[in-house]
Amino acid sequence: NAGVMQNPRHLVRRRGQEARLRCSPMKGHSHVYWYRQLPEEGLKFMVYLQKENIIDESGMPKERFSAEFPKEGPSILRIQQVVRGDSAAYFCASSLFGDKGETQYFGPGTRLLVL
Amino acid sequence: AQSVTQLGSHVSVSEGALVLLRCNYSSSVPPYLFWYVQYPNQGLQLLLKYTTGATLVKGINGFEAEFKKSETSFHLTKPSAHMSDAAEYFCAVRKTTGTASKLTFGTGTRLQVTL
Which of B9, B103, B104 to mutate to test the interface with A (most CBs of A within 10 A)? Predict the structure, then answer.
């Protein structure tokens, strides 16, 4: 059973461009979480999605960031007009039921570098 | 609001020595507690978690942690360090009530194992 997959693993963008990060959850998982890890910091929650629904986006910046998890296909984290401060590792996690005691399984991350 | 404090951003131990990584949480209600490990340029892997039941939890790779409600702590230990334990370790909490299912992470402790 394949784990959580993220692509690309590394992404380089110039300031003002758009970044699209993809996450395919573990097979059968319908709950997806996005986290951001800035250099030398822990992971910070961004958004929690269930198929076709955003459940909690309390950690998402108000502007330029959006996320979706369509009925078919991977979850997408989209960053418009990237700035240098967006450089970070972005991790996706998935779980089966979304229960609070349940394990979230993490992908390998996408490392975004904004030049 | 919940928070997690990991004392010591860097810990160095000799191979074969005891590993002790500290984690304290702040929460109005005892949360669910997790320890994750991150190897360089990889995602996070669950080491162990406490949800209910026995307060001493055993995880993978010989690690264990004890939930102490009176001390609001969930320290991670391993009796004998191995070179392969060198990694970054993150303590995380999740609320047991309400709809939010996000993990709140500490800033991490980088473990170095020396010969």
Answer: B103
Residue B45 structure tokens: 């892997």
Partner-chain contact A56 B95, CB within 8 Å = no
What are B22-31's pLDDT values in tens digits?
Answer: 999 998 777 8
Q: Considering only CA atoms, which of B115, B108, B30 is closest in space to residue B67?
A: B30
Answer for the pair B85, A32: CB distance below 8 angstroms, yes or no.
no
**Candidates B90, B103, B106; nearest CB to A104:** B103
The residues, ordered by sequence, that sit 6+ positions from B55 with a Cβ below 8 Å of its Cβ are: B66, B67, B68, B69
Burial A79-112 (b: 16+ CB within 10 A, else e): beebeeebbbbbbbbbbeebebebebbbbbbbbb
On whether the CB atoms of residues B57 and B71 are closer than 8 A, the answer is: no
Give the model's confidence band at A104: pLDDT under 50 very low, under 70 low, under 90 confident, else very high: very high
* CA–CA–CA angle A91, B30, B10 (5° rounding): 50
